[in-house]
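User: Run a structure prediction on this.
Assistant: Running it now.
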Amino acid sequence: MQSLAKLIPTKLISSKQNQTHSNHNIERTQLLTELDSIHHYPLTLITAPAGYGKTTLISQWKERQSHTGWYALDKSDNKTEQFSRYFTAALVQACGMETDDLNYQNDLTDYFSQLLVKLNKIDTNFSLIIDDYHHIENAEIHNALRFWLKNQPATMNLIILSRLTPPLSITNLRIHEQLLEINMSQLAFTHNEAKQFFELKLNDTFTQEAIFTLCEQVEGWATGLQLISFILKQNSDLIKSPQKLFAKLNQHHIADYLNEEIFHYIDPELKQFMQRCAILHSINETLATAITQDKNSAKKLDELEKQGLFIQRIDNNDGDIWWKFHPILSSYLTQSCRLELPDEWQKLNQRAAMEWLKLGFCQEAIYHAQQITDTQTLYQILQQHGWSLFHQGQLKLLEDSLNHLPPELMWQDPTLVLLKAWVVQSQHRYQEVSGILQKFNTNSPLAEHYQGKFDALRGQVALNEGDDELAYKLASNALLTIPQEFSYARIVAISVIAEAQHCRGNLQESMVQMKQVEKMALSQHTYHHWLWSKLQQAEILSAQGFLQSAYDLLKETTLQAESFHQIPMHEFLLRLKGQIQWEWHNLDQAEAMANAGIDILEKEDEKLQCLALLAKISLVRGDLNNAKRLIEQCQHSIGHFPAHKDWTATLDEIQVIYYQLTKDNSQFDSWLIKKSLPSRASNHFTQRQSRNIARAYLLQNKPEQALSILKNILHTAEELKLTSDIQRALILRNLVFIHQNKKELAQRDLIKALEISQQTNFISAFVIEGDIMAQQIRQLLQINVLDELSLRKAQFILRSINQHNRHKFAHFDQEFVQKLLENPQVPELLKISPLTTREWQVLGLIYSGYSNEQISQELVVAMTTIKTHIRNLYQKIGVNNRSEAIEYTKNLLVLMGYH
């Protein structure tokens, strides 16, 4: 055979060989582990489009191995004689076989037979790597390699790297489990690998969220990440603005790379086919044929996949075959379609919109209709399918589409005006709804059913503005004029009536009507109002004191809410769950819910309620600095955003409690001037605002005004069975009676509030009152007047207060005890006979209201040992019983500056 010395050396060396020794490649640990099983398979096939790291991966693996050969192909290797020479050289490199007597005579299969005979004498395991096999188009080489694989010795492993699947009877090998495969999805960088990559390349650390966004956008494509790193080296701030980053990427590096690596090698006609198809987010044969007018579309899509041109199949259960382009390639192709095929752009999107409609995909049809200069197509789609999209929760898509219409089309159509108003209403932008209704002027009277629909909407607006009487009237009139066939309008009207009843405090009637809305909405597939009815039912149950039932209902609804894309309502659901968790003193869970609600909202103004919940959590924890920061954030939002009475009452409550905890009485005069007392506290937000004003009067040292308000709202709450608000009012009235030194009345209210807690499981409402509540609960525990369930609640509340207020209560750590003993006013007996560390702990727990049994559980010490500690510490501090020990401890704390 011709000497192998004349071969080009670089074709027998990995192009990445030197790089594997550098620190600039991420080690693909999981894939390398998978490749360690390579010796169990005759063939290993690594397929992916350009730039996915095939060569880098196998080079990393090769560096760990001995006895490997490398053959890098190019177009010239389609010559069978050249292929035979380099193939042989790579074999020699791998196993050291002798080749002097081999003779190639224009038959590659025959020559491979000679090689196989030679290899029978080799007993060393070895591997041969063939890189860039997609360059081979010569059928003789394919046939010879198929022959080789059938007869390959057990000591050899053949590894092929290619952009497309080679015609080497791969399916047969796969069936017989003789094939190890690594594909594009496996080669794609994970988020952690992308993070490591950027840290190595840029010597900088980025947030998980930023890395996640970049990795998702390029779908783990290694070259895409590499090109991004070039841009970030020039301007690292672009990582905060992914849209600008990818725009710059598309403008410069991507086009050059794709033209050099892909489009330089493919037929221009095939590129145009790709450009036309790329306007679609996903493609099947029907769509491709309709858009390109090419009857061979299915064959071409299949060919693109086989050639590894960044197109992949999408898992789908409808029996049809779907593809999608890689997002980076899709973006490039779409841009080039606009530039290179400008006369076709409008036609392509028109065809796409019509074809998507035929297939039943309205969202996709709207997307393409928005690309067309003539808005008539978009107008027709919205007329026919707008409401179904609304019921599916596609609020953002609808709003964008309606804003895309010219005014002369938008405002002449009452159906679209109603749709626009409900889209805005569903995102809690109440003021805009009124603006839309004012802007809609019609020269001729509306048809009766349209009048009914607008009345139902105006009823909702009246609710937004707090006028439940007008809302009830408008919705009731609407029901009389809306025919039965207009089911959605009737659902809206009944929903408004139910909500008005809720505002009036008629909870039972409201619940019946909301259940009716739920049933109607589900049967009509109007999921938007189905979800709204469920949330309203949860609020009614909470007001009635059935918090566990409310939480269970919300929990059942969570999965469906996520699938409906109802972003504002999804936040509402999470917030309701968080509020219940706050009441139950599950503060970590409440915080998680509030943060989850914030994450799904885009506008700062919309986050007010969740921020308020976070502030309440901070108040209960005693973290006043964080509470102050959050309150200021809420105040900023509410100053720029018209809010519902419920929202303002919630924020007012947090502010007043914050003033109470910080003992800042200077704020109340100006605060009270701005607030008006609700005429009748018939619902949770008017009850809350009435309590806010009562609390402010109490903190102003005006207990009689506070009692007058509380008397009225308790009467209303009892009449309407607003159990949760009864409990909250009792807790506040308890504070007023304590302020007036009416201890018996205070104790009566507290015991009643604890009894109600057996139903509601309220904890934080007690805990937030802090020291004054803890002292009262200690007294109740000492006089033993609580039933068993109330006793357990009281003990849990006390422990929760102690947990968040250890600086106020007896937490005698080593540092505190040392300072205490250094105080010249400390009792002499305590210096002469100091307590042990354990005795200090026991004294602190006695002061905090713990029983002997609870102290035993807290310190994990036997009851007999606890009794010994108590006896010893009583003797050392000179007291006879628990009450004296508590008073003694209180005096020590006062001595140290705690009041």
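The chain has five domains: 4-187, 192-382, 566-636, 647-804, 814-895.
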